[in-house]
Amino acid sequence: MNSSVDPCQNGLLSLDDALGRILGSLSPLEATEQVTLKQATGRIVAETLAAPFDLPPFTNSAMDGYALFSEGLRPGMGLSVIGKSMAGQPFEGRVKKGECVRIFTGAPLPEGADSVIMQEETLVTGNRLTLKRLPSKGENIRPAGGDVKKGEQLFTRGKRLNAADVGLLASLGHASITVFQRPRVGFFSTGDELRSLGKPLTPGAIYESNRYQLQSLLTALPVESTDLGQVPDRLEPLLQRLHEAGRNHDVILSTGGASVGEADLLEKALKRLGQLYLWKVAIKPGKPLLFGKLGKAWFFGLPGNPVSVHVTFSQIVRPALWKLAGASSFKPLRIQARCTHDLHKTPGRLEFQRGIVRVGENGEATVRGLAGQGSHQLKSLSQANCYIILPPESKGAKSGETVLVEPFTCLLTNDD
Question: Is the pLDDT of residue 4 over 50?
């Protein structure tokens, strides 16, 4: 990234421009490690994996019933039941015409059989079975390799492992997997007004909330996070904290001190110790965001207001951390939703309003904005399950109009 131009003298950057510059300057951390499957959920795959064998490894029954050879069967024909095949205890012989084998779900299909008829479609007397209908060839069987073929590529570098992925790996005998090491993230807050939880509030003081919010946001990512505490609004303590953090972390996050007031010292500190690449993004809330570098550590200076912290983390820091962690994709889910109430906005910046999105029985998504859209108002953020994204030129939206919505999670509750 070109740092010859002072970013503090430039105008506001659009979110796309700022994010493009940030992501363009980052490269995934290449260090890898082996983890067990029990440690693998949420981690990023660092190798291309192929299946070592077919899955399922043998043709088996999809039903409880009877395995038989379908050719030449006639309505009402009787068959001899010559044995049974159970999961883990296969029938050892061969099925011939006029014969069948009692079989259970998941059990290997006996040699000679080509179909399974459900037990409900048969009559059995002793060792004699009568068909209520004629099965077709291949009915109710799961062919070997029907799920995964030997040598088939399963995962490529950059895949984030979920529960189903871990199950698939286990079914193919993988006890461990090579993943990227997690970026080390240190975070702290600045501000003389902040008080630790449990301490009495003095006039003009507030309880610290940003570090707790950041810790919660970071737990959903494949990173190792360290709470570096609070720093007063003085340049020397800030310089010392940044210098120490830059030696031991891949990423440093701070909250507060990124604006233009007399006590907002991050710009000065970052210029003295490292490089400042960009400052101020045309979003609301979250405009005063800094990005730069301290030695080998990337630095993000987030605003001090708690909703601004949430917005800048979700829109800028999170995709940056995903890239550093080695993920191949890190775009959020965004959908169209119909407004149920008017939304108000002043043209100028891309705006992230808090809202509640619903999906009706007809599959239509609707959204309503919440009261309390100030960047200091955490209650509405706590109540919300999405951001309503309004473009810079927008003056809001009327009830019935369609807007872009970014759900916080894929789980939408019925809570109001």
Answer: no
pLDDT in tens, 68-98: 999 999 888 899 999 999 999 999 999 999 9
pTM greater than 0.70: yes
Residue 392 structure tokens = 């810079």
Residue 187 near residue 225 (C-beta atoms within 8 A): yes
Render pLDDT for 138-176 as a digit per residue (tens, 0 to 9). Answer: 999 999 999 999 999 999 999 999 999 999 999 999 999
Contact 47, 178 (CB under 8 A): yes
Q: What is the mean pLDDT of the chain?
A: 92
Cα(266)–Cα(259) distance, integer angstroms? 8
CB-CB neighbours of 89 under 10 Å: 11
Q: What is the DSSP letter of 53?
A: S
Q: Among 130, 126, 127, which Cα is nearest to 117's? A: 130
Please state, in angstroms and rounded to a whole number, the distance separating the CA atoms of residues 284 and 350: 6
CA dist 154 and 159 (Å) reads 10
Distance CA 100, CA 111 (A): 11
The DSSP output letter for 317 is I
Residue among 251, 247, 252, 250 at smallest CA distance from 229: 252
In the chain the domains, ranked by start, together with CATH numbers, are: 7-31+182-324 (3.40.980.10), 33-49+154-180 (3.90.105.10), 60-142 (2.170.190.11), 335-407 (2.40.340.10)
Question: Tokens 């002072």 belong to which residue?
Answer: 6
Token pair 């994010």 in the structure block, residue: 19
Task: Please say if the pLDDT value at position 7 is more than 60.
Answer: no
3-state SS, residue 149: coil
**Measured between alpha carbons, how far is residue 209 from residues 196, 376, 410 in Å?**
9, 11, 25
At 405, which amino acid appears? V
Q: Which two tokens stand for residue 200?
A: 């009495």
Q: Under DSSP, is residue 322 helix (H, G, I), strand (E, B) or coil? A: helix
Residue 303 contacts residue 309 (beta carbons within 8 Å): yes
- Write the DSSP string, 194-209: EE-TTSPPPTT-EE--
Cα separation values, 312 from 217, 309, 325, 330, Å: 12, 5, 19, 15
Rg of the chain on CA atoms, in Å: 30
